[in-house]
Amino acid sequence: MGRIRNILVFVLVFVCSASAQQKPSGPFKCIVTNTEYNVFMRLNLYEETIPIPGQEILGNTFGYLKKSTDSRVWIVTGVTISKDGKKADLEMINDYGSEDLNAELILNSDSTYLLRQLSGSTIKIAGKNKWIKLPKELKFINSRK
């Protein structure tokens, strides 16, 4: 009887530890890129696990948008994912805290993503000694699957 109990305890511990180690996964845990503007988004919209490079003091976030050649970022601070799992409403703020916006990120049927800025500030990135406003709608492709 003691041996069976030990086996059951072992199986229970194994199952519990395996389920505790599983991380949420889905279409909004990814890195997506837009080559035209040389920007990318590193995302995990299911839980705050993404540190900002060079700004780790801010802690983990849902992700960020960044130009590949610049250290400034737009941080995803809030997320609501639709019931069908194909759209996420985002709250974003720049790393200075001076501008914020609401946007939506949509997973298209062709596996591309559309970032649509809805309200608030316009996302700007540095380029050629001036600020460049990103279009209100910007298409991204998944660069890591």
Describe this structure in words.
With about 140 residues, the chain is mainly beta. Residues about 5-20 have low confidence and may be disordered. The protein has one helix at about 1-20; strands spanning about 30-35, 40-45, 50, 60, 65, 75-80, 85-95, 100-105, 115-120, 125, 130-135, 135-140. Strands 1-2-5-6-7-8-9-12 form an eight-stranded antiparallel beta barrel. The chain has a two-stranded antiparallel ribbon with strand order 3-4. The longest helix is centred in the first third of the chain and has 20 residues, at about 1-20.
Task: Give a brief rundown of this model.
This protein is mainly β.
**Residues in helix, %:** 10-25%
Provide the spatial order of strands within the biggest beta sheet. Answer: 1-2-5-6-7-8-9-12
Counted by DSSP, the helix tally is: 1
Oligomer: single chain
State the secondary-structure class.
mainly beta
Beta-strand residue fraction: over 45%
How many E strands? 12
Mean pLDDT: 87
The first-to-last residue Cα distance is 48 Å
The sequence of SSEs as H and E is HEEEEEEEEEEEE
Q: The biggest beta sheet, please?
A: 8 strands, antiparallel, barrel
Shape: globular
Low-confidence stretches: 5-20
- Radius of gyration, in Å, reads 19 Å
What attributes characterize this protein structure?
1 helix; single chain; mainly beta; 47% strand; 145 residues
Write the SSE topology:
Blueprint: H1 2-21, E1 29-34, E2 39-44, E3 50-51, E4 60-61, E5 63-67, E6 73-81, E7 87-94, E8 100-107, E9 113-120, E10 124-127, E11 130-133, E12 137-142
Antiparallel strand pairs: 1-2, 1-12, 2-5, 3-4, 5-6, 6-7, 7-8, 8-9, 9-12, 10-11
